[in-house]
Design goal:
By secondary structure, this protein is an alpha/beta fold. The chain contains 10 helices and 20 strands. The structure holds S-adenosyl-L-homocysteine. S-adenosyl-L-homocysteine (SAH) binds next to helix 6, strand 15 and helix 8. The site of S-adenosyl-L-homocysteine (SAH) has 20 residues, from helix 6, strand 15 and helix 8.
């Protein structure tokens, strides 16, 4: 087995349990390095740190899978880890749909498994995890006896690992347009062509948080995708709901979802660029009781962080101006590059420009099936804020 010795001065991060070991933290490597293989990691004075998979093509040389010396990395290991992930989700109350495996937060670095009731979508985003795909599929088959498993590895980050982008069946083929249930509603999910793994499970707890504020309200939702927040609003008793998305296809899906739930009379969707339309409607003097915003990550890298900050500020400023005094702004940000504190500052700047005072209702993160590990910054990425706009 490959043996790695870390430098004398290593970051607290590794000592405290973070699973990533960067190239520049390594003093010496013994054995022939083959990408994807398991390596044992030791401190400079030969104390065992953990075992993980290695990829010399990546800046993150090793991602640790275990801190136990006697734990073998084999099929059984993946079976047990995935079974543990399911036990944890069940304990939190998830029964049908959940992110079953959330990578580093579940000690399975770079593995994502979304469970849509009896269908599963997986992403293996690093070489060392990709190698174990058959073991992962076998474990899912053993634990769940699923109707189907699909691979959504059509993500650019795989190329940094020397892996191709690809998607397809990991089970017998099945109809990839499925219907899931959430909070008593139904949503169509396009596993094959939908965004990410087809559906944003990370907002499933947050969608319930709008329950009371939307009652009898005129609601505007922007960045609607398949209409989940908007259909929840209609279901919770909104008077009227309008959802906007720049993608025509998303608007079609959202419209179908409204019909599926019998709320099509009060819940409409339009194709529009939210930045343009919100600005124009504020000028026109339109007002809503509740405005909901859930934009995409405006950046994926630190270099363009400023662009993201500007984007979030602009859209929230425009949104806020459309909120009737005493109404509510429901706003999210899904990039971990903008942390909760910075997000709050951005919203504060927007409020200052709009000359509005804010009263915080809830400020939370992603749903609990995407666990946040303290000390592992990347695991906390979603900000979900509801404020009353005075
Ligand atoms: N709220 C959704 C997820 C939204 S994802 C849910 O919970 O399922 C972000 C969406 O914003 C995508 O559907 C994308 O098409 C849309 N989008 C991106 N830029 C936009 C713009 N300028 N105007 C309107 N929609 C936009």
């Amino acid at each position: 087995m490959i043996k790695i010795n870390l430098r004398k001065k290593i970051s607290q991060r590794v000592v405290n349990g973070h699973p990533w070991i960067f190239n520049n933290e390594v003093d010496k490597i013994e054995g022939e390095v083959k990408g994807g293989e398991i390596a044992e990691v030791f401190t400079y004075d030969k104390k065992f740190v953990g075992k993980g998979y290695i990829n010399p093509k990546s800046q993150i040389l090793v991602r640790l899978l275990t801190r136990e010396k006697n734990m073998d990395i084999n099929e059984q290991f993946f079976y047990e880890r995935i079974a543990q992930c399911w036990e944890y989700r069940k304990k939190l109350g998830y029964t049908e749909n959940c992110r079953l495996v959330f990578g580093e937060a579940d000690d399975l670095p770079q593995l994502i498994v979304d469970k849509f009731n009896n269908h599963f979508v997986i992403q293996t985003l690093a070489l060392g995890m990709d190698i174990w795909k058959p073991a992962i599929v076998k474990a899912i088959n053993q634990i769940f006896n699923p109707l189907g498993i699909y691979e959504r590895n059509d993500v650019p980050v795989r190329e940094l690992e020397g892996l191709p982008q690809q998607k397809g069946f990991l089970s017998d083929p099945f109809d990839t347009k499925i219907i899931i249930r959430e909070n008593g509603l139904q949503f169509r999910v396009d596993i094959e062509n939908g965004q990410k793994t087809g559906y944003f499970l990370d907002q499933q707890d947050n969608r319930r948080a709008i329950q009371h504020i939307v009652k009898d309200a005129d609601v505007l939702g922007a960045f609607t995708y398949t209409g989940t927040f908007e259909i929840h609003a209609a279901h919770y008793g909104a008077r009227s709901v309008l959802g906007l998305d720049i993608s025509e296809n998303a608007v079609q899906q959202a419209t179908k979802n409204a019909e599926l739930n019998g709320v099509q009379d009060c819940c409409r969707f339009e194709t529009a660029n939210a930045f343009d339309v919100l600005k124009q409607w504020a000028k026109d003097g339109r007002q809503y009781d509740v405005v909901m915003l859930d934009p995409p990550a405006f950046t994926k890298s630190r270099e363009t962080l400023q662009k993201a900050i500007t984007g979030y500020k602009e859209i929230n400023l425009r949104g806020m101006k459309l909120v009737r005094p005493g109404g509510f702004l429901v706003t999210s940000s899904c990039t971990n590059l903008v942390n909760a504190e910075l997000f709050q500052q951005i919203i504060e700047m927007a409020a200052k420009d709009a000359r509005r005072k804010l009263r915080q209702v809830v400020f939370q993160t992603q749903s609990a099936d995407h666990p946040v590990i303290w000390g592992m910054e990347n695991t906390q990425y979603l900000k979900f804020l509801i404020v009353q706009v005075l």
